[in-house]
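Late entry, written up from scratch paper. The run itself happened at the end of the previous shift, but nothing got recorded in the book at the time, so transcribing now.
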Amino acid sequence: MEIRDDSFEYATNLSVHVLDGDPKHVNLLKYALSAESVPNTQVIICASMESPWSILPQIKHWADVLEDHLDSLPISIEDRAAQRKQHAERWRQYSEFVDFFDFSPTGDLTESMYKKDLQDRASCSDTLSRNLGCDIIVVITKTDSMISLETDYNYNDEKFDFIQQAVRKFCLEIGASLFYVSVKENKNCDLLYKYLTHRIYDFSFNTPALVVERDALFIPAGWDSMTKISILFDNIRTFYPDQPYHDVIKSPKLSKKYEPRIEIVAEGEQDFLARIYQYLGDPAAAADRAGVEGVLKTPERRVFGSPGVYSVSKRPAMQNTSDGAISTFFHALLNKKSGQAALAAANNKQQQELEQEKPGKAELDAALQKTDSIEDNKQLEKKSADVEGMTILPNLDKNVVQSQESIEA
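Output as recorded:
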């Protein structure tokens, strides 16, 4: 990452090592964080607001990983104690009433407020109770997903305040800064860059803590205290602030109740037809059927609790005509041969009807041909009447034509 100092026009590169949240890459920490680079290294622990139920467990897990790695480095006890002391001193030096560049009070009123604030922050027993001896920034990403959490999982300000106070308590223990950022909404991204350059290169940084907007939170290391965190307790009424995190912010996957799967046994087709055959075609059975359940339940379906099987109100008896049709249908299904015979009989009947229609069609064709011949004869008679001395005949042959020619001569 390129770092520029606009005041002196200097530029340098900042090395960034990312584990990508994979525990399998923990063994690579020895290349990024060595015994010599601990005092000059800034550690960032990230968690996503998209899954708030895993925020606190994740940052605690990676803090444990970092602590185990620092303990495994070949650093003497004196050097580790010096690193912790330096980190605690830097924590106490912070004040929102002091310029970060020279850490000097600007007046009597500011000095008194600075001392009071310092006393308030030092009085808490949880402050730096887990001092790791290195600078840490906790970054909560994707804060724009708070809106979707409200609509999809019924989150409210009370739960968001509970998440904030739990994370701030943990940051107070390890002496870490806290950022709520959103790349989508471009919130606190530039501020995080400026704070990194301040912590690593001691650039001037005068931005105070931001706690008004719930999705753009910024709490620098050394500012927070239990007195300030307790302000959030006023809005937490449904549960206690000291309750376990997983009891209040539950994962929807774990809170969903899974019902046991019900095995559905399908009845055989022939068994079903044979079972209901006794109710078809018999008027007495039809009358009895009016008072039984609307859906027939087999013993197997009752045992396994097949869904969709239920009792309905009594239905009126079916008419005999419909019983006969249904009886014929099931007879055809039970006896395939009889069904094939019925189909063959229907085909024969259609063939006979077609054959009966053929004579009528022949007579119609003969009548049409006769009509056409009569019209042709009329046209010939009209043409022959125009020629003088010509005998009008239905058909003209060669002898008639010769006699006509002799008469004209």
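The radius of gyration is 49 Å.
(Scratch paper discarded after transcription.)
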